[in-house]
Every structure is written in C-alpha cells, then in structure tokens.
Amino acid sequence: xxxxxxxxxxxxxxxxxxxxxWLLMSVELPAISAVVSRxxxxxxxxxxxxxxxxxxxLLVEAPIIMLLAASTALSKDRAAYERLARFTHGxxxxxxxxxxxxxxxxxxxxxxxGLIDPPPEVLEEARLGLIIMLPWTWxxxxxxxxxxxxxxxxxxxxxxxxxxxxxLADGTVLVTGFMLGNVPGIVVATLTVIAGVLVEAVYxxxxxxxxxxxxxxxxxxxxxxxxxxxxxxxxxxxxxxxxSLLTQPVGSAAMSRLALPLESLAVWPVVSGVVFLLRSFxxxxxxxxxALLERPRSVGSLRRFTLxxxxxxxxxxxxxxxxxxxxxxxxxxxxxxxELASLARRGLWLALPMPALxxxxxxxxxxxxxxxxxxxxxxxxxxxxxxxxGILVLAVLVGGVTGIYAALAAIAxxxxxxxxxxxxxxxxxxxxxxxEEYEAGSPALPGAHGSEGAF
Length: 455
Prior knowledge:
mainly alpha
C-alpha cells in the first residue's frame, strides 16, 4: 500500500509559523522608518541607516544567513549539532572582527567614503550606526543556527514566538527614543535592531536547550558529515547570501551617483521595507520545502502550494499599490513628506514581480538544497548579481536616471534571471522527485511522469 499524499494542512502548519515570524521581522524596518522620519533631520538619518548601515550589516552577516537552512538539513543528532555550533561561533568571530575593522579604523573611509560615497552629511552619522551594530552578526548567527534545530524537530511556532519577543524589544526602544525626542535617529534605529536580535537569540537558545538534550539522539544512523563534505554543502549556500546581499551596498553606491541621491537613499529603507513585507511569505517557504521534501508523496502538494502562495502575495502587493492605500502607508504611517512619498510610490511599481518571485525561488532553491547540490544556488545568485551590476553601471554611465528607480528596476530584473536559472538547474531534480511520486501511486500527478520541464 502506497503512503498517503502529504496533505496541504501539513504544509500550511509548517509554513504559517515561519511566515508569521518573517512577517513580524518585516514590520521592523517600516517601524524604524516611521519613528526616524519623525525625529530631527529625517532624510539624513534615514539615508544613513537604510542606505549605508543596514546594507553593510547585511553584507557582513551574509555568510551566516544560510545557517538556518544548513541547521534544518543537518542537525540530525547532538554530534552534528555540536559541530555546527563550533562552526557558527568560529565564523561569527571572524565576521565580527571584519565589522569592527570597518567601523573603528580608516578602512571606513575606503569602504563607505570611497566605494558607497554617500552625501557628506550622511557619512559620520552612518559610522556611529555601524559601531552600535557590532553585536549584530554574532546574535543573528546563533539565533538562525538554533532556529534550524527547532524547525527540523517541528517547533516552528517557537520561532514565531521568538520573533514576537524581538518585536517587543524593538518597540520598547523605538517608543523610548520617540518620547525622548532628542536622540539621533541613527542611534534609535541601530539600538532598536540590536536590542531585538539579542533578546531573540537568548530566547531561542533557552528553548532549544531542552530539544537538544531530550529529543536529539546522541548519534543518528546517518554517517557523520565530514569537514570537506560540509564545506562543499555550505560554501555555495554562503556565497549565495554574500552575492545576494551585495546588491544592497551596490544599490546604495549607484544611488549616490545618480539623480536625487539623498532623496533616493532616504526612501530606500521605506521601499525596501514594503517589498520585504510581502516577500517575507516567500522567504519562509524555503525551509518548509527542505524539511517536507523528506516526506513521501510531498512534491505535488508543495508544488501547488507554491502556485497559490505566489498568486496571493502578488494580489496583496497590488492592494498596497492602490493610490489611497499607498498614500496612507507612506505619508500617514511611515511619515514621509509628500515629495518623498511620491518618489517611493512610483518606485514600488518596479518591484511588483518580487513577492511571487520570492515564492518561486524558495521552491526551486529548496528542491536543490534537499538534493545537496547547492552549487546551483550560488550560480543563480552570481548571474543575478552580474545582471544587477550591469544595469546599474549602465544607468550611472547614461546619467539622469533617478537613483531609486534604477536600483529597484535592476534588482527586479536580476531576481527574474535568478528564478529562471534556479528553474533550469532544478528541473532534473524535480523530474526525478515527480517520477518517484508517480511510481508511489500519486493520483495528483498524472502528467508528471518523465516530464523534466514540469513546474
């Protein structure tokens, strides 16, 4: 008798706590923008945080972003957990050291002043923010590593609760900064995110301790993953994050050299926050695919869930683009001036495909990670980054283009290319999975048999 088909309720039950966690995280950037825009010199401090500090902090932490996927896939026993913990702390130390060198030494003038080249009034404010952000990478790494164990063992809801606690810490700092009124916006913004990630990392560590102690076997039946095998698995994933997040400082550098540089950098965190809000539903799907593809007869259900989720997120984004809704969000909630809100509203249309693309990327990328052939993931991001840089360089050479529009258009095109490459590189894996499901007797895939081009 063939095993039962994976039910949609199982996919939804695994996805929604992670989606709630990502959604809560996505509220962080709009909330920070809303407070900073109501403090002194909002354009300068929004530009410093969203155009310099946050993109650089993301780039520094990029090599540890995929610890969540790696931990979800590999934390099968306590021995594997402990090896991953040592790797997490070692890599976090090196990345934090690099962060400190940029923030505290003349290297700052080379990296930020020379490469990104923001307006002069932004430069020193951004340095202060980068100094405050020093604990960021280590806290993110430790949190994501432990979250992977919780997701693998079926405790996705704990991840969502941790994000809620993080937001409470965020809100406490934001309200305090707003009430005081005389704290620089960059200080309020960076203290907010640091307080949030530290509180969440501590909470997740407390929750994972019992799971590791009581539920992870000392050793599993799987042979231990050697150093070379682990690096072959993880380095392509790590490069994926590095190349993907490199688009943020590259975009900032391009905007600094195009029309309306200060205005573009100021609305950048606001627009990014709105786009991230809707893309978060797709980001949450990657670990769901990795975890559930281990279940028998899961391909059909996951594939259809992908299509539904892509459609719903696109529809929700279109609602946000309705003029009355966009004006309410950008001016009344976020606090942008009418001029900046108009700039942001036009830019949001350029990012229209991105929520659906995020869902598709998680589906194809999850299939690839499940197979262990992670090189294709970094290939896709490398090609995407090449396209993005090419478009931005062309925009700078041509001149006269508004910076925020060039950056958003380049990233949207790059994400389309990335999705296409992941589709191409995952097609044989998907065909094999569909073949196995067909042979298991799934009535849901009558056309999948032997079809390498199937979605």
